[in-house]
Amino acid sequence: MIWLFLMACNGEIEDTAGLTPVGLRFEEINVQGNLGSATDMVMVGNDELFIASKTGEVGHYRMSEDRLEELGSFTIPGVLDELDCGLISLAIAPDFADSGYLYAGLCTSMTESGVVRVTVTSDYDAIAATSEPLFFLEEPEANNPWHNIGALNFDDDGYLWLPFGDKTVRANGQRLSNALGSIVRIRPTESGYETHPDAPNPDVPEVWATGVRSPWRATFDANGHYWFGDVGAADFEEINVVTGPGDNFGWATNEGPCTTGCDRFTDPVTHWTHDGVDQYSLDDPDVIPTPARVASVGVAYDSTNDQYEGLLDDTLLFNDFCQGFVRGMTVAADASTSDDRHLGHLDNAVGWAQGADGFVYATTFGACESADSSRGQARLFRARLRYE
Hints:
five-stranded antiparallel beta sheet; Neuraminidase; globular; mainly beta
């Protein structure tokens, strides 16, 4: 018999022999310094990471078993930090070790959001001056700084995927004349970007998929499928998957499962309601009832260096920022799903990543229903197995 031990929350050693792993618990990591209002993080190499703060700062850290050590920090210039706007997301270039390119998704005004590229060097004070715009979208009729750019993700072919919200103008979801309310796919070059030869709309070749409202967090699975959470309006939160060019997810004709014109729309893989009695919330005994909902995608777990005894094999993690439930779906090679199950609870999880050590990490900030939710103390957690 293999004897397994883990460190319990009270610091004592707990014998888990004979117990079955049933989910995840989240242990807080001691952070040297202040994470600010953390919005995203990206792992670099074996033990380093960048963490974005909504106000525009990026911290560079080194991870050890029991703490996070700050190596330095720099600022992304031109960030508007207001309500949902700010420095929203980060991604490192596939050739980061050579180029030092870091991409940042941000707002520059109430009406505009997009991506800049900076070159990371050991001289943190010089990084801001390297900032150059890559791709921006503006909606002059936006009435609030909401529904901006979301997560940044590179695919295996070097294309950068950019989920853009509708900027509060519902018609943008089905408007083919611009890229708002769409998933953009472009490949950065030294002088700009290239579009994909299979782009479905030759008039706006940056667009790969359409019909989204406020896509926020996203990830790729091992088979190259792109998963994203779309934050709903009055009725439904959605988890969607893009499996090919031209997918249309229905907003604003439909929210949640399709009810009108369904032949041209792709339904969400899963969804939950805003009525307070959705099954996902009922499955989690730690949920505190609230009408607020924010769909989010975590990571598609890579079990090459498995830390979870097979529990997360082929699993996509997703969560609700407001409700706090964390769930997993088993994802097949064709993007079909099964075994949608409750895994754990983490309030206000905003950024997810898997480290080279095989563990899943999450940053949190704020409180969902606070009028100034971005200003709560940001924290960093490592996911451990929970046993019965």
